[in-house]
Amino acid sequence: MTAIIKTMPLQMFWPTFDPFLFCAFHNDAYPAGNGSLGPNASLSGRQIGQDFGQKDGWSMYHGKKIPGFPAHPHRGFETVTVVNKGYVDHADSMGAAGRYGEGDTQWMTAGKGVQHSEMFPLVHTQKSNDLELFQIWLNLPSKSKMVEPHFSMLWNEQTPVVELSDENNKQIQIKVVAGELECDGRSIQPLPCPPNSWASEENNHVAIWIIDMEQGANWTLPASVKGLSRTLYVFEGTQVRADEQNVPINSAIQLKSDIELSLYNSGTEKVRMLLLQGKPIGENVAQHGPFVMNTRQELQQAFNDFQLTEFGGWRWESSDQTHGDVATRFALYADGREERP
């Protein structure tokens, strides 16, 4: 019996299943910076303000001078932004701000409504500014859609990483962003997620793991409980063999959650994979752009509320707020607390 339900090719926006709403993979080979946190390169030939074309291997997205996503609202779900390379500058309508990256994760509960910006500052002027990140949208159940907004930083230095060797001394590494991992007789616990998250309840079995396997390595993804959404995304390498099925790079593997999966890196270089897992919320989803509610009426109310209140307004100098030209990571919380890794 195989754990595999089906495989799917990956585009920029990856296929997801309840409780996940969306997963975007940004992989941009930005050039050296121009001293103002933008690219030291011509922007001609790009649709500035709506640049997703990956011209020359990178995009400006909604940014006009600095790549990224200037101020925009959310309600009714959470964003989990895992930055493997590069930096993200955060600012929001709660008064919180931060610069994170190089392995950090930001977990933001939008709840009843927040505006935030996510800019990609090109801090290095003498070398390239590679950026690689996942942004994952995790839904909230109806009971939590109108909770107070909240954001947490899961710093790279504190995020658990499990290092294993197979029978041939080939190396496997699992970064545990969310969800308990049991392997080699150990129980690896993640850092705490926000208190109102669907992931905060143990019985929902939410897991976000990044799995690296050396060429030629074997590892078995352990089974969990029955009835979860479970998807493995193969995003780097050449290919992997999953339950004796060859799966090429840039593939998603939808899995049965209660059956273990045998993995073998049959390619010619290290393979990297992202696992998303969780108990489905099982409620109606009404989504339009940045708002995710349960009914059309709630969606309309979200638009009305944003027009009236702007979810607290924007208190920063610019909609594409950044935090200086020094590659220093920090978090400033709405209550005035400051934190550094």
From TrEMBL:
Signal peptide limits: none
Pirin C-terminal domain segment(s): 211-312
Any Pfam family: Pirin
Domain (Pirin N-terminal): residue spans on this chain: 61-138
UniProt family annotation: Belongs to the pirin family.
Name of this chain's protein: Pirin
